[in-house]
Design goal:
Length: 230
């Protein structure tokens, strides 16, 4: 197993340490670097803002998006079809608190929707992976849940075989996940995690520049290939 082809840089809409339109810079980098496959997180953008987001996406030269993070408030079926048709999107994920609403709203697409687990110790057990497409296991959420020994940790452990995709970002010394990494060692925690947790689609959910994400990806690939292929 080589993780080089399983990890994808992400365009994110979180504000964090950056201006709200940081994703514009990420799209420009993607175009400049000639990157053709990415993951996408338009999670905080409302319907009108996403129109501009998609215009920039179409100018970026991206050809494929395996995983898109959707939100429950206002995502439409037309948007799902847009990604499936134009970008060959395989999976959509949404937060655990929203999954019940989302998969019922899109019955024709529920087999493509993944439940993203958090670390709140308040998992809605009504949502079963078999009712949707499966699970999107956020790696840092799993680490937080593992340390707290909470509901989501046990849920993932019982459903490793349902994991279809991952989010991956940092985990800091305060036992919190971070979308803006300061250094590569905020990724060292992944060395402690089981192989069953990692899927064939690992999306970097980072606000860092695409250039920085590529450096982090190189480090992640080295860690995982060494751990699982040695």
């Amino acid at each position: 197993m080589n993780f080089e082809d399983k990890i994808f840089v992400g365009v994110t809409s979180h504000c964090g340490r950056h201006k709200p339109n940081n994703w514009k810079k990420q799209f420009l980098e993607i175009k400049k670097l000639g990157i053709k496959t990415i993951s996408l997180f338009p999670t905080t953008l409302n319907f009108e803002n996403r129109k501009e987001f998609y215009k920039e996406l179409e100018k970026s030269g991206v050809e494929k998006i395996p995983l898109v993070h959707i939100r429950s408030e206002d995502f439409t079926e037309d948007e799902l079809n847009y990604f499936i048709t134009k970008y060959k999107t395989k999976w959509f994920n949404c937060h655990e608190k929203d999954c019940d609403v989302v998969y019922k709203r899109f019955p024709k697409h529920k087999h493509l929707i993944l439940l993203e687990t958090g670390h709140s110790d308040n998992l809605n057990e009504k949502i079963k992976p078999e009712e949707v497409g499966g699970i999107c296991a956020d790696i840092s959420h799993f680490m937080k849940s593992k340390e707290d020994n909470n509901t989501e940790y046990e849920y993932i452990r019982k459903n490793f075989d349902k994991i279809k995709a991952n989010h991956l970002n940092g985990f800091d010394s305060f036992r919190k996940d971070t979308h803006h990494l300061k250094h590569k060692h905020q990724l060292d925690y992944i060395k402690t995690l089981p192989k069953k947790l990692f899927s064939d689609i690992i999306a970097l959910e980072m606000d860092n520049s695409i250039t920085a994400q590529l450096k982090f990806k190189k480090y992640i690939v080295k860690l995982l290939n060494t751990k699982f292929n040695s």
